[in-house]
Write a structure and sequence with these properties.
Blueprint lengths: L1 E4 L2 E7 H6 L9 E3 L7 H5 L6 H13 L5 H11 L6 E5 L2 E5 L9 H15 L7 E6 L3 H10 L5 E8 L5 H8 L5 E6 L3 H12 L2 H6 L1 E4 L5 H7 L1 H12 L5 E6 L4 H11 L6 E6 L4 H8 L23 H7 L4 H7 E5 L2 H15 L5 H16 L6 E6 L12 H4 L6 H6 L7 E3 L3 H10 L1
Parallel strand pairs: 5-13, 6-7, 6-9, 7-8, 8-14, 10-11, 10-13, 11-12
Antiparallel strand pairs: 1-2, 1-3, 4-5
Helix pairs in contact: 3-4, 3-11, 4-5, 5-6, 5-10, 6-7, 10-12, 12-14, 16-17
Length: about 425
């Protein structure tokens, strides 16, 4: 498997190099030279396969001979050891629950797979691997648990002060060991900018072995394709072959993985990128002008991204052809007021508790249906986080219905271990060099 930078398609690296040097020096993002096609027989019989079997087939098709088959199976079976059920709400409405991993968020798929791939490639005698990650909520917790006590690694998580939920913050700051958390007095975009600056700093890269655990790392994107294929398998078993996915979208890695699955041969009728008021992509699709803006804090904090890094990957997958891209992707944005109303509607209609990100994806499905009243496709909205992470958002009658997982209850008894920094790069650089 060869990968190129989206800013230089003539320079190729191996998968291993892309994993450890997650951001090219030209500040593009790594993409596979070729998006390979899965065989028609695989799609035809996908309904008979388990999540792990599907994951192995997809990963081995992408990675070719980068990791021997037996080792790749071990990585997948260790990393993806939880379910992702497509729960039926009505005749053709499904919610794909992606929060059954240890951190209760979809990012467990990417973080656990990536940590084990890095552990596989690392040699005991190699230089300590410094993993940097910016989080707007869920990424940090997934990465922390994915890398906790992985030999020869040290993880530094940056998160915006006052802009993550209490449970999310506890997941970031109570691990210790090889996990460090830094509260940044700024926004997620500021956190992401500091991480990107670190990768471009010559002195840091000379002294430290830096890599990223954000979705800019291709090893995060690949495993996120697995659950799109698995969702299709579950729907096909129920007689559906026409599928629409509504995807909560912040940094656009989640829907980017869906598009990669589509390019590999997954039959998808439509993707809907559902966002909050951080609407950079919906505005682009309407106006043709890509204009990032400072992020705004919302109920759906994991999507509070004003400059989504992975959009460049999605454009690359369509060869910069906006018309072709718009034929398969639409995008809508929603306010906190609409999000809150959606949470109540889902509960009243289905007796189902949806987190705010999930509620936004549901809203996008409802709008699509209003515009396409004759649509009979299976509509799947992705549930990216467990509702217990956002206790202050729900009305009392809904909050009382939320089941609190054991791992969340245990967090309350752990001490926070956190450092505090501003948004200046020199302060962050000194921290990395001297701590």
């Amino acid at each position: 498997m060869k990968l190129y930078s989206t800013n230089n398609k003539n320079h190729f690296v191996s998968f291993k190099d892309a994993v450890f040097n997650s951001l090219p020096l030209d500040k593009g993002l790594y993409m596979p030279e070729i998006i390979p096609q899965l065989t028609p027989s695989f799609i035809d019989t996908i309904q008979d396969k388990s999540l792990q079997e599907i994951a192995f087939e997809v990963a081995s098709t992408l990675l070719k001979d980068e990791i021997p088959a037996a080792d790749l199976k071990t990585i997948i079976n260790e990393a993806i050891n939880f379910d992702a059920p497509a729960v039926k709400l009505d005749e053709n409405t499904f919610v794909l629950e992606l929060f059954h991993g240890p951190s209760l968020a979809f990012k467990d798929f990417g973080a656990r797979f990536m940590s084990r791939v890095m552990g596989y490639f690392l040699r005991a005698d190699e230089k300590l691997l410094d993993v940097l990650v910016a989080t707007s909520g869920d990424t940090g917790g997934a990465v922390a648990l994915g890398f906790l006590n992985v030999d020869n690694t040290r993880v530094t998580i940056l998160y915006p002060k006052g802009k993550v939920s209490e449970i999310q913050e506890l997941q970031l700051t109570t691990n210790g060991h090889n996990i460090r958390a830094i509260e940044i007095d700024g926004t997620f975009d500021d956190c992401q900018a500091l991480v990107k600056q670190a990768f471009g700093d010559a002195e840091l890269n000379a002294k430290l072995r830096l890599t990223s655990a954000n979705s800019i790392n291709i090893a995060r994107l690949i495993p996120q394709t697995f659950y799109y294929f698995y969702a299709y398998a579950q729907l096909k078993k129920q007689g559906f072959t026409d599928v629409i996915f509504s995807v909560p979208s912040g940094n656009f890695g989640n829907i980017g993985a869906g598009i990669m699955a589509y390019k590999m041969g997954l039959p998808v009728k439509q993707f809907i990128a559902a966002t909050n008021v951080n609407d950079t992509v919906p505005r682009f699709l309407k106006t043709g002008i890509y204009e990032a803006k400072p992020s705004v804090q919302t109920y759906s904090n994991a999507m509070d991204v004003g400059a989504p890094s992975n959009w460049v990957r999605i454009m690359d997958l369509f060869g910069e052809e906006a018309a072709q891209l718009k034929s398969i992707i639409s995008s809508e944005s929603f306010t906190d007021e609409q999000t809150f109303a959606s949470i109540i509607e889902i509960f009243d209609k289905y007796n189902y508790v949806a987190c705010p990100h999930t509620a936004i994806a549901y809203l996008a499905i409802q709008n699509y249906r209003a515009e396409h009243p004759k649509n009979q496709s299976a509509t799947v909205f992705l549930s990216t986080a467990h509702a217990c992470k956002f206790p202050d958002i729900f009305p009392k009658n809904i909050a009382e219905k939320i089941e609190i997982p054991v791992q969340v209850s245990e967090l309350a008894h752990k001490a926070k271990l956190v450092d505090n920094l501003g948004i200046d790069f020199e302060g962050f650089k000194n921290y990395l060099l001297n701590r």
